[in-house]
Amino acid sequence: MDHATETEVAEAAKHLRSLNQGLNEVLFGQEEIIELVLTGVLARGHILLEGLPGLGKTELVKGLSKLLHLENKRVQFTPDLLPGDITGNPVLQEVAGRREFVFQPGPLFANIVLADEINRASPKTQSALLEAMQERRVTVLGESHELPLPFFVLATQNPIELEGTYPLPEAQLDRFLFKLEIMKNDVATLQRIVSHRELGTEPQVEQIMTAETFSELLALVRRIHLPEVVANYIARLVDSTHPQPSEESAQIRFGASPRAALAMASAAKARALIHGRTNASFEDVKAIAPAVLRHRIVLDYNARVDGHTPNSVIAKLLATVPFQDSPTPKNLVPA
């Protein structure tokens, strides 16, 4: 595959700046989160947004669908939600003079699916998303149905400490490219919200680009060059998340999967495009690594008791894993 040219990247970066500005008019004071959401979508990944209720997670997702003019549907996850409520169900109808079951698509059949408060649904319903997120299709009564492309699941969840929540299983967490943590607003941002928002009204945003233009951007991301040295850094960084005789990784019980390395490579290329570069860099990897890894590593009991978190362990790994692997000195190479 040929690499993206500087002209193509510059034009794409201009579109993406407009998209970024539009999202910043929807969600105030969350510039870093917004760039990561754009990065994840350009990398064709699903995104998990975690934060307390009322911080704008839902508005961010709805604003993104309006700016891109893509079909979106929202599913409010509740304990009584059934798998068929999101995938769709066969319905008995009269066809050509006889009654037969006809599949009626559920809300998963959209370009952007907002899975609101996903961790309030039962594990059985959560698992119904697995095939859709990985295969971009659903299977009902043995029959497969392809989902529209592009297809993204942007899920929100409340912190597990809140009552009435069910932790997502590791297999489903691994399907999310990013896990983003939305923090509370500072005083200046709250003042801006109070001055420019009315309770019960949605932010007004206009379409930024066509679906065709967005599809071209998705294709361009794949043509961003990933240098071998950066690919090697990604491999060593993911490998460092597995238990090894080092102070940082000794706190980890289970490390990240190969899917994490692929996610990191795709996200690094997407971030490079956003910043108008034809090559992914070490800095791109460092910028997106916490979002890729924080939901893919499991700390051991002692680390959690000592107050360590996935974020703190990842920060140590990023500080200790060098950009380039040190070559073995010639005098130490076996004859």
TrEMBL record:
Where do the AAA+ ATPase domain residues begin and end? 43-187
Q: According to its UniProt record, what is one Pfam family this protein matches?
A: AAA_lid_2
**SMART domains for this protein:** AAA
In terms of InterPro entries, this protein maps to: AAA+_ATPase (IPR003593), ATPase_AAA-3 (IPR011703), CbbQ/NirQ/NorQ/GpvN (IPR050764), ChlI/MoxR_AAA_lid (IPR041628), ClpA/B (IPR001270), P-loop_NTPase (IPR027417)
Tell me what this protein is called: AAA family ATPase
Which organism is the protein's source? Luteolibacter algae
